[in-house]
Amino acid sequence: MNKSPQSMLVVIGASAGGMAALKELVAQFPEDFPAPIFIVNHMSAHTSGDALVRVLNESGSLTCVHAQDQQAFESGHIYLAPSDQHMLIGKDKILITKGARENRSRPAIDPLFRSAAVAYGNRVIGIILTGYLDDGTSGMMAIKRCGGVCIAQDPEDASYPDMPRSVIANVGADYCLPIAGMGELLSDLASRVLPESGPAPDDIVIEAEIAQRVLSDLPSVEALGDQVPYNCPDCGGVLWQMKEGKLLRYRCHTGHAFTSSALIAQQTVKIEETLWVALRMFEERQNLLVTMSKNESQTSTSSISQRAKDSKVHIDRIRAMLKSTEKDSHVEDAGPPAS
Q1: Is the pLDDT of residue 316 over 70?
Q2: Which of 84, 110, 134, 135 is catalytic?
Q3: Is the pLDDT of residue 98 over 80?
Q4: 132 to each of 59, 137, 199, how far by Cα in Å?
Q5: What digits encode the pLDDT tens for the residues 161-189?
Q6: Which of 45, 52, 191, 258 has the fewest CB atoms lying closer than 10 Å?
Q7: Residue 300 pLDDT class (50, 70, 90 cuts)
Q8: 182 in Cβ contact with 127 (< 8 Å)
C-alpha cells in the first residue's frame, strides 16, 4: 500500500443482519478504491467466517481475506476479523489477539475502532451498520475524538437499528445515510489527503493497549474510571465504571469490557444459568424426598412429604423466574462468555 502518512483507512462494524448489509456495501467499491477496509462482523466462536469472505468476494471487485497477525495491509483490499479473535490496527500492520471479550463479543467492534484511531488519527473513516445493542459506540467516540469521520447507517435502512441509533445518539454521526448511498461518499472521503494528526488522548491509548497485550492490570483500569460495587459476569472480578458523555461503560482488570446495556444482557445470561442449576438441584431434591417417603415409616413420611411439597413450591417459583428472564433476553447472542 501507499506508505505515506496521508493514507486513509476504513473500519466497519456490523452485527445482526451484517452479511446482507456488508454485501450491499462492498458491491459499491470500485476496483481502485484508495484505502484498505477492515471489517468486524459479530459471529459465533464456532463459525469460521468463510461464508462471509466468499460472499464479499463474489459481491464486488475487491479482494476479501481473513486477517492474519502481523499482516501488512494494502489499499483496495478487505480484511475480515477472524472468528473468536480481536482484530486491531497498528502502524502499517494488522494485529490479531485473543483478548477478553468486549460487549460480549470477540471479535468486537470497539477494539478495532480504538486501535485504528490511535494508529491513524484523523485518517480513519468509521462506519457502523446494523446490529443489536451498542458495540461500536465507544470505538466511534474514539475515532471522533481523534479527528476521524463517523458514518452511521440510517436506522430506518437497518435490519436491526440499535447499533446505528446508539452511535447517532451518543456520538453524533458526520453522515447518516442508507447503505445504497455510501459507496460514492466513501470513495470521495478515502481519496482525501490529510496532515498527520497529533497523539490520541491517553484514555484511548490505554484501552487500545489493553486489547493489544491481551491482559489488563489494575493501574490501567484505575486510570480509566472509578471502582463500583458490581462484579464482572464473565470472570467475577471487580468492575470500574467509565463515563463517556451519556454512555456508561465498565471494565474489569482482566480485560472484559461492557457498555451498560451489554452488562445487563450478560448478567441476564448468568442469572438464567444459575436458575437452571438451582432448578435441577431442587428437582433432584424433590425426587429424592418422594423416594424416601415410600420407604420410611408413616410418622416420618408426613415430614418428608411436607419437605417435598416445599421443594415443589421453590421449583414453581424458579420456573416462573425463568419465564421472566425469557422476556428480558431479546438481545443478541454474542456467544459464550470468555474464560
Answers
A1: yes
A2: 135
A3: yes
A4: 25, 12, 32
A5: 999 999 999 999 999 999 999 999 999 99
A6: 191
A7: low
A8: yes
Q: Which grid cell is 117?
A: 484511531
Q: Give the relative orientation of helices 109-120 and 137-145 as an angle to the nearest 10 degrees.
A: 10
Nearest Cα to 130, choosing from 65, 42, 206? 42
Instruction: Parse the chain into domains and list their residue ranges.
Output: 9-190, 212-260, 262-328
DSSP-assigned letter for residue 129: -
Cα–Cα separations (whole angstroms), residue 29 to 177, 195, 216, 256 = 16, 25, 38, 35
Given a contact cutoff of 8 angstroms between Cβ atoms, the answer to whether 168 and 176 are in contact is yes
pLDDT tens by residue, 54-91: 999 999 999 999 999 999 999 999 999 999 999 999 99
Q: Is 234 exposed, middle or buried (0-12, 13-18, 19+ CB in 10 A)?
A: buried
Here the cell at position 98 is: 485473543
In the annotation, is 302 catalytic?
no
CATH code of the region 9-190: 3.40.50.180
Q: What is the pTM of this model?
A: 0.86
Task: Please pick, among 42, 66, 86, 256, the residue that the annotation labels catalytic.
Answer: 42
Return the residue matching grid coordinates 421449583.
315
Helices in 79-194 by DSSP H: which ranges?
Answer: 109-120, 137-145, 162-170, 182-190
| Confidence band of 4 (pLDDT split at 50, 70, 90) | very low
Q: Does the annotation count 333 as an active-site position? A: no
Task: Catalytic residue, from 7, 15, 138, 261: name it.
Answer: 15
Examine the residue annotation and report whether 15 is marked as an active-site residue of this protein.
Answer: yes
